[in-house]
């Protein structure tokens, strides 16, 4: 889980970059739109919040649609960057803490339970589930679409561990382009893990970047807020990652184009 949490957090700030890089849906129902990406279109199309949940003055106000940017980092070293208020189901949060679930993970899961379930399998409603069965949870999680997804191991006793899904990339016109984007993300995950790279920045900035990334010609004209220096974390003897104590990980961000982030900062080494 340590590696999965780390990878989830470090990939999250990359999602707006790939959203702009892969943007491929400027036309809807034969109309040419002012955006190049489907992100906000699907977010609006799946927004099932009630009027009270949409109202900022409402008791049950929920800030985002169920299809939107993620709301909290998971790794303990990333917690200072959770700068937006996260609404979560307090009952479920306490239940998770009581059985030893880490607080960031408990908050992440309890945050999903503020949503109404959309999918229930009729033949599963009255079944007695064995301990460890996650079918109902999987159905809830698959109906909450974020730019990143943190998935527990499957319940079939396989050797598959915790999984991280990178979700904003749009499908391209050719197999070659799709393969290129997939390979880029896979190779980036290996680099992040091998060098313990730190990309996290305030979630509010990632949210803002996602809104910039969907605009027309964002890949050429928009600037995204990103760390302006590549830094790394340290590995402890027990295999945990921690922030360096020499101040190297102090966050300094700058507004850069996608080209500057990928070809100058990442490829050029910052």
From TrEMBL:
It is an enzyme of class 6 (ligase). SUPFAM superfamilies: Glutamine synthetase/guanido kinase. The keyword ATP-binding applies. Pfam families: GCS. One of its GO terms (cellular component) is glutamate-cysteine ligase complex. GO terms for biological process: glutathione biosynthetic process. It catalyses: L-cysteine + L-glutamate + ATP = gamma-L-glutamyl-L-cysteine + ADP + phosphate + H(+). Pathway: Sulfur metabolism; glutathione biosynthesis; glutathione from L-cysteine and L-glutamate: step 1/2. The keyword Membrane does not apply. Keywords: ATP-binding, Glutathione biosynthesis, Ligase, Nucleotide-binding. One of its GO terms (molecular function) is ATP binding. Gene3D superfamilies: 3.30.590.50. Its EC number is 6.3.2.2. Belongs to the glutamate--cysteine ligase type 3 family. This is Glutamate--cysteine ligase. It comes from Panagrolaimus davidi.
């Amino acid at each position: 889980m340590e590696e999965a949490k780390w990878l989830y957090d470090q990939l999250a700030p990359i999602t707006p970059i790939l959203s702009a890089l892969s943007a491929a849906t400027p036309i809807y129902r034969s109309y040419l739109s002012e955006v190049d990406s489907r992100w906000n279109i699907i977010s609006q199309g799946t927004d099932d919040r009630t009027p009270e949940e949409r109202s900022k003055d409402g008791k049950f106000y929920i800030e985002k649609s169920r299809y939107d940017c993620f709301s909290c980092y998971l790794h303990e070293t990333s917690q200072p960057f959770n700068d937006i208020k996260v609404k979560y189901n307090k009952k479920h949060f306490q239940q998770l803490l009581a059985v030893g679930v880490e607080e960031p993970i408990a908050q992440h899961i309890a945050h999903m339970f503020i949503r109404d379930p959309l999918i229930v399998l009729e033949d599963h409603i009255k079944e007695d589930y064995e301990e460890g069965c996650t079918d109902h949870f999987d159905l809830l999680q698959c109906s909450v679409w974020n730019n990143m997804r943190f998935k527990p191991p499957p319940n079939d006793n396989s050797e598959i561990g915790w999984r991280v899904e990178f979700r904003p990339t749009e499908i391209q016109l050719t197999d070659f382009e799709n393969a290129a984007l997939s390979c880029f993300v896979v190779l980036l995950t290996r680099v992040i893990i091998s060098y313990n790279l730190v990309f996290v920045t305030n979630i509010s900035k990632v949210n803002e970047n996602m809104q910039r990334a969907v605009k027309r010609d964002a890949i050429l004209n928009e600037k995204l807020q990103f760390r302006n220096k590549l830094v790394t974390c340290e590995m402890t003897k027990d295999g945990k990652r921690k922030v360096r104590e020499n101040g190297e990980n102090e966050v300094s961000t700058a507004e850069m184009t996608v080209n500057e982030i990928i070809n100058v900062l990442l490829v050029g080494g910052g």
